[in-house]
Design a protein that fits this description.
242 residues, elongated, 11 helices, mainly alpha, 60% helix
């Protein structure tokens, strides 16, 4: 994989964490900060993890900014990079695949480095066969193994995943549209979503559907409209559920 593709993977993971902090549980089970080849993105990842682990933030993005700026104003550029990654991120649904791919990239880099090191060692004159054996064991015994999530899960693993989801439900709110949820992952507390379109294309209808779906999940909803008064809104919601 090229350096550009590796950088895209790292940016995608940072973007997912900026938008969906809950995805850290999945990401941390696969990679650590040493998997990042980009030093700025590695610093951003460390800061994000520190903020999430503290769990005392109100606005997550601002908390990440403050964490980065603790180490000096020169890190403001890194915060801009984190925001750029966030702006390019749509959904956290493939973040496990991104992390697995990044872990495999780290494994490949380590193997390449070990191979070069071993080649230089073998160029030395008068080596004993036992020295070569020991060097081989030393070089390849501690290579990080990338997790292969492509294989099927056992029934026990599936049950454990289900139990974990039941005991630790996501903070995401369903949009009421299963296909849309599959793409976006639903609504998250820090989301700012803008519906745009030409007049009479159904923006208010879709927004009303989202509001109603959110209310049905026992969440508080505040609905403003510059076009309809409260009676019209009430009638629209009644017609939707009737």
């Amino acid at each position: 994989m090229s350096e550009n593709n590796t950088l895209l993977l790292e940016e995608s993971i940072v973007g997912c964490l900026m938008l969906y902090p809950d995805s850290l549980q999945v990401i941390e089970s696969i990679i650590d900060c040493e998997c990042f080849s980009s030093k700025p993105l590695r610093t951003i990842y460390r800061s994000i993890v520190a903020v999430i682990n503290r769990q005392n933030w109100e606005v997550f993005v601002f908390a990440v900014e403050q964490e980065l700026l603790k180490n000096g104003d020169e890190h403001r550029q890194q915060f801009r990079l984190a925001c750029d990654c966030m702006a390019r991120t749509v959904s956290p649904l493939n973040v496990d695949r991104y992390a697995i791919a990044l872990a495999k990239q780290r494994e490949a880099r380590v193997i390449q480095f070990k191979a070069i090191e071993l080649s230089e060692f073998l160029d030395q004159p008068g080596l004993d066969i036992e020295d070569v054996r020991l060097k081989l064991e030393e070089s390849f015994s501690n290579i990080p193994q990338a997790i292969d999530r492509e294989k099927g899960k056992t029934l026990v693993e599936c049950f454990e995943d289900f139990e974990n989801k039941f005991n630790h439900p996501s903070r995401a709110i369903s949009t009421g549209l299963s296909d849309f949820d599959a793409v976006t992952g639903g609504f998250h507390p820090q989301d700012l979503i803008i519906l745009a379109g030409r007049p009479s294309m159904g923006k208010s209808l879709v927004a009303g559907h989202f509001a109603l779906a959110t209310a049905r999940q026992n969440k508080e909803v505040l609905f403003f409209s510059a076009e309809m008064d409260r009676v019209q809104l009430f009638e629209r919601f009644i017609s939707t559920v009737s």
